[in-house]
Amino acid sequence: MIHSCAYTKPTNLEDAVSALHEENARVLAGGTDLLADMRGGIKKTDLVVDIKGIENLNVLSVDSDRGASIGAAVTLNALIESKKLKERYPVLPDAAFTIATYQLRNRATMVGNICNASPAADMAPPLYILGAKVLIAGRNGERSVPIDTFITGVKETILDKGEIVTRVEIPPLSKNSKMVFLKKQRIKGHDLATINIAGLADRGSQQLKICIGACAETPLLLEKTDELYREEKDIEKLAERIFELSLQSISPIDDIRSSAEYRRNMVRIYVNRVLQEICL
Amino acid sequence: MKKYSTHIIITVRVNGVPYRDRVPVHLTLLQFLRERLFLTGTKEGCDIGECGACTIIMDGKAVASCLILACEADGADIRTIEGEAKGGELTELQKAFIDYGAIQCGFCTPGMIMSAQNLLDMNPNPSREEIVEAIAGNLCRCTGYEPIIQAVEAVAHKRRRR
Question: pTM of this prediction?
Answer without folding.
Answer: 0.96
